[in-house]
Amino acid sequence: PEVDGGKAIMETDENRDEAPANPVLGCQCPEKIIFWIDLDREIETSTFTRRPVEPIPRLNALKSALIAFVAAKIRMSHHHSFALGVLTDRVQWHSDFTTNGKEFAAAVSALRATGTYNSLDLTTLFDELTQHVHVPQQSMHGPEPHYIVRNILFYSRSSSVPTLRNSASLEVFSLPCFFLDVLYMHGRPEKTDSQAVFEWWEEMLQNHANYCLLECQSNLGIFQQCVGQLSAHPLQRPHELDDQKLLEL
Q: CB pairs under 8 A, 24+ apart, for 197-206?
């Protein structure tokens, strides 16, 4: 992958082949997408750059990208719906599902960083999902599901490794209609703990079929490319998209 400078230091794929194949791959159905947005202060103080464009805070770039993402998905199918959650020291539901692009744009545009957080208990993400979303109990050989549940999480902390208090929460990955995609936006690894953070996400996700782990540093073009890749329907995207796990330096 394209890098800002330096060299890529990591490519681990040891356990990827052990992940089970998704039995409903290839079908088409509506997506219920929840965007989980990190509201740690780093998402406003760190920027993306691309000449000749002036540096833009990560959060501003993310807002614009998500509004365009949702508009494009609605043009493809008005059956897709979108919700918002936020990350502080825990995960919190923010706004309910909508199929209205303008309503979503207003909700995401209002987001602001709320503080500096040294921890994140990811177990609370699965707690919130249990309260707000029903994941179809698709059988291994059943008909096409009525919808799938996709979580797209944007993590923006270069030196805060998340925790998972209850590993039993990961049992939801056994459901073929559940997906968790992560885009990690980070600072330079030689100046931060972003390598350790990236490795935590990889270790947490790598034994499951239904995920995509991407990362970017400060290049606006790479960030936009990552968001564009996530626009693909997870039941149709190529398997190799899930294997892009180099840490950009």
A: 197/155, 197/157, 197/158, 197/159, 197/160, 197/161, 197/162, 198/10, 198/247, 199/10, 200/161, 200/162, 201/155, 201/162, 202/12, 202/245, 204/122, 204/162, 204/164, 204/170, 205/180, 206/15, 206/16, 206/19
Could you tell me the pTM of the whole model?
0.86
Question: Are the C-beta atoms of 33 and 81 separated by less than 8 Å?
Answer: yes
**Number of Cβ within a 10 Å radius of residue 223:** 23
Nearest to 88 by CA among 65, 66, 121: 121
Q: DSSP string covering 28-69, please?
A: ---EEEEEEEE-BTHHHHSEEEETTEEEEEHHHHHHHHHHHH
Inter-residue contact 81 to 98 (CB < 8 Å): yes
Closest CA to 37 of 97, 147, 112: 112
Tens digits of residue pLDDT in 80-103: 999 999 999 999 999 999 999 999
Q: Name the percent of the chain lying above pLDDT 70.
A: 83
Q: Which helix (H) or strand (E) holds 196?
A: helix 194-205
Among the residue ranges 50-54, 74-78, 92-96, 241-245, the one predicted with the least confidence is 241-245
Burial 180-209 (b: 16+ CB within 10 A, else e): bbbbbbbbebeebbbbebbbbbbebbbebb
Mind listing the pLDDT tens digit for each residue in 125-181?
999 999 999 999 876 566 788 899 999 999 999 999 999 988 888 889 888 899 999
